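Model: Ready when you are.
Researcher: Fold this.
Model:
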Amino acid sequence: MDLPLKKKFKRKNKNDYVNSKVSLSDCVFDMIDKLVYYNVIQAEIATLYEMIRSEDTGHIYTAINVLTHRLEEIKRDMSPEEQTYITLRE
């Protein structure tokens, strides 16, 4: 069963977002999407750290660096409330 968690709005002019009816549940789903995505990436980084061995694991370090930079991008795009939630959980 496919449930859309995020609605995408096509913007025709600059007032479309203001005039469009966006429910509270849409905003909550957006926040949950970001937080879940953030947590999944953190879990993946932890798993990658466990895979590091003494040699031949340069690709794992690269993956960790890429995912760490992606976490920074996601955190930068979050609202202040979401950032506070993330900071309190760390």
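Researcher: Now this one.
Model:
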Amino acid sequence: MTRPTAALRAALASVSPTPLSAPLRSSQTAHGSNALHARIRGEFQEMPGLSLTLAQAARLFGLTEAECSRVLDQLAGAGVLCLRPDGRYAAKLTAA
């Protein structure tokens, strides 16, 4: 697996806490939750080497850490993401 470049690490470290979309709230509909899952899945698919800590993912997606943890864990449970031993979430590798 390719390690992220210094430029990518710097870009992720400087991610603004301004959300890319409206933050997930407990009152959000199932459709909105599905859209959030699809958006997060898409980010990892578009950048195959992307691996994020919970804090980085929460900032990137405009969620609280608790909300982000719930979504990332659901995606990991569905086999879309994996939680690496170093605590980073990454796209689950599929056999070619």
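Researcher: Key takeaway?
Model: Residues 45 and 82 are 13 Å apart (CA to CA).
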